[in-house]
Amino acid sequence: MPGCFKCTLFLFIAVLSFISFILILIALGTQKWMAAKILCKTGAELVNATDPELVKFMGEIYYGLFGGGKMRQCGLGGRHSRFTIFPHLVKTLNTALHVVIIFFLCMAFSFALTSLGFCILNIIKVPYRAIKGPAGIALWNLLAGVFAVLAVTSFMAAVQLHNLTERIANFQENIFQFVILDEQYEHSFWLSVASATVHGVNLLLVAISVIHFPALKTKTEEANVTAEDIMY
Protein backbone atom coordinates (compact mmCIF):
# COMPACT_ATOMS: atom_id res chain seq x y z
CA MET A 1 0.00 0.00 0.00
CA PRO A 2 1.37 3.40 -0.82
CA GLY A 3 2.52 5.30 2.24
CA CYS A 4 0.48 8.39 1.38
CA PHE A 5 -2.73 6.34 1.24
CA LYS A 6 -2.05 4.82 4.68
CA CYS A 7 -1.29 8.26 6.11
CA THR A 8 -4.56 9.55 4.66
CA LEU A 9 -6.44 6.72 6.37
CA PHE A 10 -4.71 7.46 9.69
CA LEU A 11 -5.59 11.13 9.30
CA PHE A 12 -9.23 10.24 8.67
CA ILE A 13 -9.23 7.94 11.72
CA ALA A 14 -7.73 10.76 13.80
CA VAL A 15 -10.49 13.14 12.69
CA LEU A 16 -13.17 10.57 13.53
CA SER A 17 -11.58 9.92 16.94
CA PHE A 18 -11.67 13.64 17.67
CA ILE A 19 -15.31 13.79 16.58
CA SER A 20 -16.09 10.87 18.91
CA PHE A 21 -14.40 12.70 21.78
CA ILE A 22 -16.51 15.81 21.10
CA LEU A 23 -19.71 13.75 20.89
CA ILE A 24 -19.11 12.14 24.28
CA LEU A 25 -18.16 15.48 25.80
CA ILE A 26 -21.42 17.02 24.56
CA ALA A 27 -23.38 13.99 25.79
CA LEU A 28 -21.86 14.39 29.26
CA GLY A 29 -22.44 18.12 29.36
CA THR A 30 -26.01 18.26 28.08
CA GLN A 31 -29.04 17.10 30.04
CA LYS A 32 -31.21 15.64 27.30
CA TRP A 33 -30.71 11.90 27.64
CA MET A 34 -34.34 11.09 28.29
CA ALA A 35 -37.67 12.91 27.99
CA ALA A 36 -41.05 11.68 29.16
CA LYS A 37 -44.67 12.63 29.65
CA ILE A 38 -45.84 12.27 33.23
CA LEU A 39 -49.32 12.08 34.73
CA CYS A 40 -50.18 13.37 38.16
CA LYS A 41 -52.02 10.23 39.26
CA THR A 42 -52.98 11.53 42.70
CA GLY A 43 -54.52 14.75 41.37
CA ALA A 44 -56.44 12.93 38.63
CA GLU A 45 -57.87 10.46 41.14
CA LEU A 46 -58.89 13.20 43.57
CA VAL A 47 -61.21 14.83 41.02
CA ASN A 48 -62.02 11.57 39.22
CA ALA A 49 -60.78 13.09 35.95
CA THR A 50 -61.96 11.60 32.68
CA ASP A 51 -59.99 11.35 29.44
CA PRO A 52 -60.59 14.94 28.20
CA GLU A 53 -59.69 16.33 31.62
CA LEU A 54 -56.48 14.33 31.98
CA VAL A 55 -54.64 16.92 29.89
CA LYS A 56 -54.72 19.22 32.92
CA PHE A 57 -52.76 16.62 34.87
CA MET A 58 -50.11 15.80 32.28
CA GLY A 59 -46.63 17.24 32.58
CA GLU A 60 -43.18 16.67 31.12
CA ILE A 61 -39.76 15.75 32.40
CA TYR A 62 -36.29 15.58 30.91
CA TYR A 63 -32.98 14.65 32.45
CA GLY A 64 -29.38 13.69 31.83
CA LEU A 65 -26.57 12.31 33.91
CA PHE A 66 -26.19 15.37 36.15
CA GLY A 67 -29.57 17.11 36.18
CA GLY A 68 -32.73 18.01 34.33
CA GLY A 69 -36.07 19.76 34.56
CA LYS A 70 -39.72 18.97 35.24
CA MET A 71 -43.03 20.60 34.43
CA ARG A 72 -45.69 19.21 36.74
CA GLN A 73 -49.43 19.72 36.36
CA CYS A 74 -51.83 18.68 39.07
CA GLY A 75 -54.93 20.56 37.98
CA LEU A 76 -53.77 24.00 39.09
CA GLY A 77 -51.55 24.92 36.14
CA GLY A 78 -48.01 24.01 35.26
CA ARG A 79 -45.12 24.44 37.65
CA HIS A 80 -41.57 24.34 36.32
CA SER A 81 -38.63 23.16 38.41
CA ARG A 82 -35.06 22.08 37.89
CA PHE A 83 -33.10 19.42 39.74
CA THR A 84 -29.57 18.06 40.00
CA ILE A 85 -28.60 14.42 40.28
CA PHE A 86 -25.70 15.06 42.63
CA PRO A 87 -25.58 15.10 45.60
CA HIS A 88 -29.20 14.49 46.68
CA LEU A 89 -31.15 12.80 43.91
CA VAL A 90 -28.52 10.13 43.30
CA LYS A 91 -29.35 8.63 46.70
CA THR A 92 -32.81 7.61 45.46
CA LEU A 93 -31.41 6.03 42.28
CA ASN A 94 -29.19 3.03 41.75
CA THR A 95 -26.08 4.96 42.77
CA ALA A 96 -23.54 2.38 41.66
CA LEU A 97 -25.09 1.98 38.21
CA HIS A 98 -25.36 5.74 37.67
CA VAL A 99 -21.73 6.31 38.63
CA VAL A 100 -20.66 3.40 36.40
CA ILE A 101 -22.39 5.03 33.40
CA ILE A 102 -20.41 8.24 33.93
CA PHE A 103 -17.21 6.23 34.44
CA PHE A 104 -17.74 4.31 31.19
CA LEU A 105 -18.23 7.54 29.25
CA CYS A 106 -15.10 9.06 30.78
CA MET A 107 -13.11 5.99 29.78
CA ALA A 108 -14.60 6.13 26.27
CA PHE A 109 -13.50 9.70 25.58
CA SER A 110 -10.10 9.03 27.19
CA PHE A 111 -9.45 6.17 24.78
CA ALA A 112 -10.82 8.27 21.91
CA LEU A 113 -8.13 10.86 22.68
CA THR A 114 -5.54 8.09 22.94
CA SER A 115 -6.56 6.85 19.50
CA LEU A 116 -6.19 10.40 18.17
CA GLY A 117 -2.69 10.66 19.64
CA PHE A 118 -1.54 7.34 18.21
CA CYS A 119 -2.88 8.26 14.77
CA ILE A 120 -0.82 11.45 14.84
CA LEU A 121 2.27 9.50 15.97
CA ASN A 122 1.89 7.10 13.07
CA ILE A 123 1.38 9.92 10.58
CA ILE A 124 4.50 11.85 11.56
CA LYS A 125 6.45 8.64 12.30
CA VAL A 126 7.71 9.65 15.72
CA PRO A 127 9.48 6.74 17.48
CA TYR A 128 7.35 5.59 20.38
CA ARG A 129 8.09 2.60 22.62
CA ALA A 130 4.58 1.26 23.04
CA ILE A 131 1.91 -0.47 20.99
CA LYS A 132 1.82 1.47 17.75
CA GLY A 133 0.88 1.05 14.14
CA PRO A 134 -2.50 -0.30 13.03
CA ALA A 135 -2.61 -2.77 15.95
CA GLY A 136 -2.34 0.02 18.52
CA ILE A 137 -4.92 2.21 16.79
CA ALA A 138 -7.30 -0.74 16.56
CA LEU A 139 -6.81 -1.49 20.27
CA TRP A 140 -7.64 2.04 21.44
CA ASN A 141 -10.66 2.31 19.13
CA LEU A 142 -11.91 -1.07 20.30
CA LEU A 143 -11.64 -0.02 23.95
CA ALA A 144 -13.32 3.33 23.30
CA GLY A 145 -16.14 1.67 21.39
CA VAL A 146 -16.65 -1.01 24.04
CA PHE A 147 -16.85 1.54 26.87
CA ALA A 148 -19.29 3.69 24.87
CA VAL A 149 -21.49 0.64 24.25
CA LEU A 150 -21.31 -0.30 27.94
CA ALA A 151 -22.37 3.24 28.93
CA VAL A 152 -25.33 3.19 26.54
CA THR A 153 -26.36 -0.30 27.64
CA SER A 154 -26.08 0.59 31.32
CA PHE A 155 -28.24 3.68 30.85
CA MET A 156 -30.88 1.62 29.04
CA ALA A 157 -30.79 -0.89 31.90
CA ALA A 158 -31.27 1.91 34.44
CA VAL A 159 -34.28 3.21 32.50
CA GLN A 160 -35.94 -0.11 31.72
CA LEU A 161 -35.05 -2.27 34.73
CA HIS A 162 -34.66 0.27 37.54
CA ASN A 163 -37.48 2.70 36.62
CA LEU A 164 -35.07 5.61 36.43
CA THR A 165 -37.58 8.08 34.96
CA GLU A 166 -40.27 7.28 37.51
CA ARG A 167 -37.84 7.62 40.40
CA ILE A 168 -36.69 11.01 39.18
CA ALA A 169 -40.26 12.19 38.51
CA ASN A 170 -41.31 11.34 42.08
CA PHE A 171 -38.25 12.82 43.75
CA GLN A 172 -39.28 14.92 46.80
CA GLU A 173 -42.97 14.44 45.97
CA ASN A 174 -44.64 13.80 49.33
CA ILE A 175 -48.25 14.39 48.31
CA PHE A 176 -48.56 13.67 44.61
CA GLN A 177 -47.54 10.54 42.77
CA PHE A 178 -46.52 10.65 39.12
CA VAL A 179 -46.67 7.84 36.60
CA ILE A 180 -44.86 7.67 33.26
CA LEU A 181 -47.06 7.79 30.17
CA ASP A 182 -44.43 7.87 27.46
CA GLU A 183 -40.67 8.18 27.41
CA GLN A 184 -38.11 8.47 24.65
CA TYR A 185 -34.36 8.75 24.34
CA GLU A 186 -33.13 12.21 23.41
CA HIS A 187 -30.18 13.54 21.42
CA SER A 188 -27.59 13.23 24.21
CA PHE A 189 -28.22 9.49 24.33
CA TRP A 190 -27.96 9.18 20.56
CA LEU A 191 -24.70 11.12 20.58
CA SER A 192 -23.20 8.35 22.71
CA VAL A 193 -24.55 5.77 20.27
CA ALA A 194 -22.99 7.75 17.39
CA SER A 195 -19.67 7.79 19.24
CA ALA A 196 -19.64 3.99 19.49
CA THR A 197 -20.53 3.79 15.79
CA VAL A 198 -17.61 6.08 14.91
CA HIS A 199 -15.16 3.71 16.57
CA GLY A 200 -16.69 0.83 14.64
CA VAL A 201 -15.98 2.73 11.43
CA ASN A 202 -12.43 3.38 12.64
CA LEU A 203 -11.86 -0.35 13.16
CA LEU A 204 -12.99 -0.94 9.58
CA LEU A 205 -10.56 1.71 8.32
CA VAL A 206 -7.73 0.16 10.34
CA ALA A 207 -8.51 -3.20 8.72
CA ILE A 208 -8.31 -1.53 5.30
CA SER A 209 -4.95 0.05 6.18
CA VAL A 210 -3.28 -3.35 6.67
CA ILE A 211 -4.37 -4.67 3.28
CA HIS A 212 -1.41 -4.83 0.89
CA PHE A 213 -2.58 -3.58 -2.44
CA PRO A 214 -0.47 -4.48 -5.48
CA ALA A 215 1.78 -1.64 -6.55
CA LEU A 216 1.05 -0.10 -9.90
CA LYS A 217 3.88 -0.78 -12.34
CA THR A 218 4.51 1.35 -15.35
CA LYS A 219 4.71 -0.40 -18.68
CA THR A 220 8.34 -0.91 -19.65
CA GLU A 221 9.44 -0.04 -23.11
CA GLU A 222 9.85 -2.99 -25.40
CA ALA A 223 13.49 -3.86 -26.01
CA ASN A 224 14.83 -3.70 -29.56
CA VAL A 225 15.14 -7.25 -30.84
CA THR A 226 18.13 -7.81 -33.11
CA ALA A 227 19.07 -10.71 -35.34
CA GLU A 228 21.67 -11.83 -32.81
CA ASP A 229 18.99 -12.07 -30.08
CA ILE A 230 16.90 -14.33 -32.30
CA MET A 231 19.85 -16.63 -33.04
CA TYR A 232 20.85 -17.02 -29.43
Question: What is the architecture at the second tier of CATH?
Answer: Up-down Bundle
Could you tell me the CATH topology label.
Butyryl-CoA Dehydrogenase, subunit A, domain 3
Strand order of the largest sheet: 4-3-2-1-5
The geometry reads as elongated
| Overall average residue pLDDT | 86
Unreliable segments of 5+ consecutive residues: 218-223
Total E-strand runs:
5
Largest sheet: 5 strands, antiparallel
Determine the N-to-C terminus distance: 40 Å
Q: Which CATH C-level class is it?
A: Mainly Alpha
How much helix, percentage-wise, in residues? Answer: 40-55%
Give the total of domains: 1
Order of helices and strands: HEHEEEHHHEHH
- Beta-strand residue percentage: 15-25%
- Total of helices: 7
Protein name: Clarin-2
InterPro entries: Clarin
Membrane topology: Multi-pass membrane protein
Transmembrane segments: 7-28, 96-124, 136-159, 189-211
Question: How would you sum up this structure, described in words?
Answer:
Belongs to the clarin family. InterPro entries: Clarin (IPR026748). It is found in: Membrane. With 232 residues, the chain is α+β, with helices and mostly antiparallel strands. It has one domain (3-210): Up-down Bundle (Butyryl-CoA Dehydrogenase, subunit A, domain 3), CATH 1.20.140.150. The protein is built from seven helices and five strands. The chain has a five-stranded antiparallel beta sheet. A hairpin with a 3-residue loop joins strand 2 and strand 3 (67-73). The chain is elongated and about 80 Å long. It starts with a helix and ends with a helix.
